[in-house]
Design goal:
- With about 675 residues, this protein is an alpha+beta fold.
- Among the domains are: about 260-545, no CATH class; about 555-675, Rossmann fold (3-Layer(aba) Sandwich).
- The protein has 28 helices and ten strands.
- The chain has a five-stranded mixed sheet. Strands 1-2-5 form a three-stranded antiparallel sheet. It has a two-stranded antiparallel sheet with strand order 3-4.
- The radius of gyration is 27 Å and the shape is globular.
- The two termini are about 40 Å apart.
- The relative contact order is 0.11.
């Protein structure tokens, strides 16, 4: 119950803050950037904006309070006191802001009573019977139904990939890779006290991974939500918020709801040619319809495509990605189309704000999102940089960038030892042939239908369209020229952001074709939709098929419960190279987990692996005791996999000599043993 209350408080807090500092935001859906009346339901901007803003504010407040309390008094569960302080404080603040706004409205006599229009019919804000007869009201109904269906789809897919059923934590095969770190970080907060925060798969005294979404889920579990609800609820809300904001942005750019709906569909169903390529390669009788429907592996025409790197699976695997993208969409709604020189785009209603309010708010949003999803902050700034080249208000873009970068830098100082990024020029992303034409071929194989139409619009479209296409391509170009981490594959997020944004002008073209009274154009629009979305639709089926299989962990697993009761997140565990494991679900802080996660975050995994080998193979109990103390390792977990490992030579006899056996399950070579290390001098 407290977890649901926390989410509700996030949304309400966000709304009251926005109502007070930026009341014009509720009207952003009234008109397009070109001035055309849209009459978009205010809910489609109010809800996602409130959720994003409130979650950022309340999430950071909860985390910082817990961190400070942990430093001050070292409580075992600082979240108890942190939530007891922050939730009532935000509730009181929200009530104060709500009363303040209400009083201000009364003072300014901004009555919400309906004002008749010149023709005698009710105005656009009315919900009377006459309003219901207007064409835009029918559009409201279609839009609402569309988002209800989308919400049900997101809920199904999230719980298909991750759910607790019959006492087992089911982690779908499509997501179990990244979920190792997600669940480890979540449990380090909900079952442990990971303050100051460390990376759950590489205890090194700092955190280089954007972890705040996992903290949110951990806090929700701590407040009483089951683990699956604690992770799925904010994931679903983030996805629906992203889609609503994309819908508003596309509708404002393209002056219509149809373009908004098509843009959302292009986000959900990745526009790839892979399905058609695969069908074209099949020989007659090679594949039946039953096999077609049962397929449970992805296409592999481009590098990493078999990971599901580009389809909807990414939003299930990387739950924090949608939240970061939603922040970018909210900022772009405020900025896109502002003051473009000699063009038809008009400033949106947000422009009525004072000269500094918009850039400051947008800078705060992006800056606060740095450790929710840092890649999206960089991608969003790249788009704003290009837009700034074509606007008269470059200073506002600069203010936003300075605030966002400054906040990101401050967070890095707080959480990271050293640098969060190691930038280097690296042309070609992960294309097999990193030449100009090789990259073109790679992009065509990856998202050819979308990029071909976007290229046509770049050539034949109006000036505004070309400017937006250029700006929306900025993250893609960034991903192809610069690597900020040792693993360039993570740049796929930049490409995905560009694909989503490039889909907006393409959706505008499709909307014009679908509205045409000429049958060939109408059929052409339908055919183009099919070509763009067919692979993505089929890949959603593949994801669902993959998640029929799952890793299953018992909710009441003895080892997980023992770790919860006897260890905290300040205790470092020396183990095998675990990815998903019962100890991880117990909240254990691994000295050296599966190395890919830490390596891609910029940690020196090679040195740590050498150190682990030395620790396991040490033959002198006194030497081992001293080395464990020097590394801050409290527990050593030895199981059958480690005893038979080809990577390590384990002297369990030496470990048993200098450490206490505090947990054991099973017998013989497959026994799971936990040893507690002794500090120098024989004392624990």
């Amino acid at each position: 119950m407290l977890g649901i209350l926390y989410i509700a408080l996030c949304i309400w807090s966000g709304k009251t803050v926005l109502d007070r500092v930026c009341p014009e935001y509720v009207r952003l859906g009234e008109k397009s950037y070109s001035g055309k009346e849209l009459y978009l339901p205010a809910f489609f901007i109010i809800f996602p904006a409130s959720y994003i803003v409130g979650t950022l504010l309340l999430g950071w407040a909860s985390y910082l309070a817990a961190d400070l309390l942990s430093l001050a008094a070292s409580p075992r569960h600082p979240l108890l006191a942190a939530n007891a302080i922050v939730m009532p404080l935000f509730a009181a603040l929200s009530i104060f802001l709500w009363l303040s706004v209400r009083k201000k409205r009364k003072r300014e006599k901004t009555a919400e009573a309906e004002v008749p229009e010149p023709d005698g019919t009710p105005g656009k804000g009315s919900f009377s019977a006459a309003r219901m007869l207007r064409p835009e009201c029918a559009g409201d109904i279609v839009t609402v139904i569309f988002f209800i269906v989308l919400f049900v789809f997101f809920t199904f897919m999230c719980y298909r990939s991750f759910a607790i059923r019959q006492g087992g934590i089911n982690v779908g095969y499509s997501v179990f890779s990244d979920f190792a770190t997600h669940l480890g970080m979540i449990r380090s907060f909900s079952w442990g006290n990971n303050f100051p925060t460390q990376y759950s798969h590489f205890a090194a005294g700092d955190i280089r991974y954007h972890f705040m979404f996992q903290f949110l889920a951990g806090n929700l579990e701590y407040l009483g939500l089951p683990l699956d609800h604690a992770f799925n609820f904010p994931s679903i809300l983030s996805l629906i918020s992203l889609c609503m904001l994309l819908f508003v942005l596309a509708a404002k750019i393209c002056s219509g709801r149809v373009a908004g709906i098509v843009s959302v569909l292009l986000l959900v169903f990745h526009p790839s040619p892979s399905l058609f390529r695969w069908l074209g390669e099949l020989r007659e009788g090679e594949s039946s319809m039953e096999e077609f429907l049962r397929r449970d592996y992805f296409f592999s025409y481009t590098p990493r495509e078999d990971w599901g790197l580009w389809n909807f699976k990414v939003y299930l695997n990387q739950r924090h990605l949608a939240f970061g993208m939603a922040v970018v969409m909210l900022v772009l709604i405020a900025y896109t189309g502002l003051n473009l020189k000699k063009d038809s785009l008009r400033p949106p209603i947000m422009m009525k704000l004072t000269s500094l309010r918009r850039p400051v708010l947008c800078g705060l949003l992006l800056g606060l999102a740095a450790f929710w999803n840092g890649a999206m902050v960089i991608g969003g700034l790249a788009v704003l940089f290009v837009l700034a080249l074509f606007t008269k208000d470059r200073l506002q873009h600069l203010v936003t960038a300075v605030i966002a970068v400054g906040l990101s830098f401050l967070q890095s100082l707080l959480f990271v030892k050293g640098s969060t990024v190691s930038p280097q020029l690296l042309y070609g992303f992960i294309a097999e042939n990193p030449t100009f034409w090789g990259c073109i071929r790679y992009l065509l194989d990856l998202a050819g239908p979308l990029l071909i139409v976007a290229a046509a619009l770049m050539i034949f479209g109006r000036k505004n369209t070309r400017i937006l296409l250029f700006a929306f391509s900025a993250p893609l170009l960034l991903g192809f020229y610069l690597s900020l981490t040792p693993d360039v594959t993570v740049n796929h997020k930049y490409l995905m952001l560009s694909f989503i944004l490039l889909g907006i002008p393409v959706a505008g073209l499709i909307a014009l074709m679908l509205k045409s009274a000429r049958l060939p154009r109408l059929l052409g629009g339908v055919l183009l939709c099919f070509i763009l979305m067919a692979t993505g639709i089929y890949e959603c089926r593949i994801v669902s098929n993959i998640d029929k299989r799952a890793l299953v962990f018992k909710e009441d697993d003895p080892l997980s419960l023992w770790v919860r009761e006897n260890s905290c997140s300040r205790d470092v565990w020396l183990t095998d190279m675990y990815s998903n494991h019962e100890s991880v679900l117990g909240g254990a802080m691994l000295y050296y987990g599966w190395p890919y996660y830490a390596w891609s975050a910029g940690y020196d995994t090679a040195a740590r692996e050498r150190r682990v080998k030395e620790l396991f193979s040490t033959g002198d109990p006194e030497v081992l005791k001293a080395e464990l103390s020097a590394e801050g390792i409290r527990y050593i977990l030895v199981d059958g996999g480690l005893r038979q490992s080809a990577d390590y030579f384990v002297r369990e006899d030496v470990i048993a000599d200098c450490c206490d056996l505090v947990y054991k399950s099973g017998e013989g070579a497959e026994a799971v043993c936990v040893y507690e290390a002794l500090a120098a001098g024989g004392e624990r």
